[in-house]
Amino acid sequence: MNSRLAVVKVLSQVTLNGRNLPDAIAHYSDVIDENDRSFIQAMSYGVIRFYPRLQFIAKQLISKPLKTKDQDVLLLILSGLYQLIEMRVPDHAAVSETVKVTKALKKPWSKNLVNAVLRNYQRQAATINNKLDKNAEAKYAHPYWWIKLIKTSWQENDRWQKILNANNINPPMTLRINTRHIERENYLTQLKQLDITASAGKYSADAIYLDKPVPVNVLPLFNEGKVSVQDEAAQLAAVLLNPQKGERILDACAAPGGKTIHLLEQESDIELTALDIEESRLQKIQENLNRTGFKAKLLAANAFEPVSWWDNKMFDRILLDAPCSASGVIRRHPDIKLLRQEHDIAKLVHDQAQILNALWPLLKPGGMLLYATCSVIAEENTLQIQHFLQQQTDAALQPINTDWGLQQAAGKQILPGEGGIDGKNGMDGFFYALIQKQ
Ligand SMILES: C[S@@+](CC[C@H](N)C(=O)[O-])C[C@H]1O[C@@H](n2cnc3c(N)ncnc32)[C@H](O)[C@@H]1O
Q1: What is the pTM of this model?
Q2: How many beta carbons lie within 10 A of that of residue 413, not counting itself?
Q3: How far is the CA of 321 from the centre of ligand 1 (A)?
């Protein structure tokens, strides 16, 4: 399939059928040429990332709104605009190759429209950019409700604007090295020998930032399970939970198992239970265990209802990497902007509270619970923990004394982009709160 046509198909799956981007791309994997895959991926992710802005621009240039049945033509126009604005495709090729797709869509009537809109954009770019600055959705490239929500949590120092901007920047590919097996410096040298430029992360002793993403199969020791792909902020969980030899540990929302494996890399001699409500996602944990050679007890179960799965033996430590809005990882999953709905947030906050309260009795006195989210929304984070501490009199918040993150009333918040090296993008947005049972 022509790559630009494939992009329109993928975008339709996301915007009309509510599929997420990886699933939408996988849906067409049989008809996509392997050589086109990264172009299709870059363009699909890019159009979704800037969707509210591109839609605003298209609106300025299309006199009569397109009918619902012609949304594919609108998506084609958005992808053409994206190429002109953000991609290093020569302008003439961006226009002519995009216009050609009207034939493949079997909508030859739209040829002149697509051509006119893209050419008019080239002529009117300065005027349109001026207007764009006055419309929040277009300026920040987020739906209005997302802007409002993030603004409510981060008024001070205009941090909300920095967060919105950071959400629109391509994230780095970050690795986690099993430093029990190989020293980070040594691995960096191996990468250098392969002409893969990279640097060490500042906060996780195991993190390496690649200058450019590469397929995992070219990474030394990946197949041997000594190297994994994981954002640096996510790598801080296992260090904070600090597993000790012989302990019983619960990873309560574990799939696909990134943090499960890191806990085992930190201390392999633990009795680890990895639980997730989605049975299909447990398969991912198993694949990660197989690749890395570790063992854990896997349970497909609901963390709300320990009575249905718990063996009545208390845990020394619990990691609760809670289901959340994922507002801290929008840069990696830009489809969240469109697929998440405003009313989802209250339900997530409710579920997080329920899981926290359900798991608390499973923790030994003296034991530690680490609450984590990849969110930047106060209700899911510091407010959630403050509320929990008010309810549980035997819960004591522990200080997190680190040089990363912003101290909150309860817990520590990493904002997206923090900790970048040489002006490059750093970590995902993450929240951590460490609580000890009295
Ligand atoms: C943020 S993800 C976990 C990521 C994982 N810890 C990692 O590092 O790879 C949250 C997970 O919680 C699971 N989940 C959601 N509700 C749950 C529940 N009630 N009980 C158990 N797992 C749940 C989801 O299926 C999802 O896999």
Answers
A1: 0.96
A2: 25
A3: 7
